[in-house]
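#onboarding

Welcome to the new folks! Below is a worked example of what a typical request in this channel looks like: someone posts a single protein sequence, and someone else replies with the predicted structure as tokens. Don't worry about understanding the tokens yet, we'll cover that in week two.

Example request:
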Amino acid sequence: MNAITLRGATIHYDDFGPATGLPVLLIHGHPFNRTLWAPQAKALTEAGYRVITPDLRGYGRSSVTPGQVFLSDFADDLAALLDHLGIERAVVGGVSMGGQITMEFHRRHPQRVRALVLSDTSAPAETDEGKEFRNRLAERLLTEGMDSYAGEVIDKMLAAYNVDAMPDVAERVLSMMCSTDPRGAAAALRGRAERPDYRDTLPAVREPVLILVGADDVYTPVANAEAIHRLVPQAALAVIEKAGHLPGTEQPERFNTALLDFLTTQVTAHV
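Example response:
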């Protein structure tokens, strides 16, 4: 693990694989950390890719910025991290909030993007009801901590049937959620509530795009992925069976097969 201080925060990150490999930047969702991508990092590095997995500010071992952190802050942090690593362009991907940060990254730094990977995410701006929910949840996490929230949402983060069928996976996901600093989670929730509508910018994407979604995702269902698919000129859609909101964790072999096929046929073949 590595650490760098940039833009007023200390960001911890892993940098796996050969320095000469095509760089793939993977962005975790809320309320997780960089280890969410462990199955993908292993598969990709074995295939010769360079994989960068950061802890977003406020998550994992990175420092906390209390108050409100916008998706644009996360995106600019990641651009600064790529600068530090000497990486001009990368495949950029994320899950859930990480997918929205990926779309924000492309909106702000399109010249840095080789391809996009969007997993279990949604493009529209937050609704008024959603803004109220996220701000209320932020206050709750600051008051109560992460444990009760994590217990309430585990059967939505994973497909409900996988919580019992995959106890080791469920425990790993719960551990990540419970170890998140409530101040970091709350700041991200407040900032995410103010996100722009990415349906305005997605049609301009000209790089290859892979959209993945768990077949039984209740947070961002298949219909959300299909809506993004219709907006993006060069997009492939992969529905991961027997998975919920975190298919890369629930069904890593199926997820990795789709990801590696995309990188091989749509990205590295055209480098």
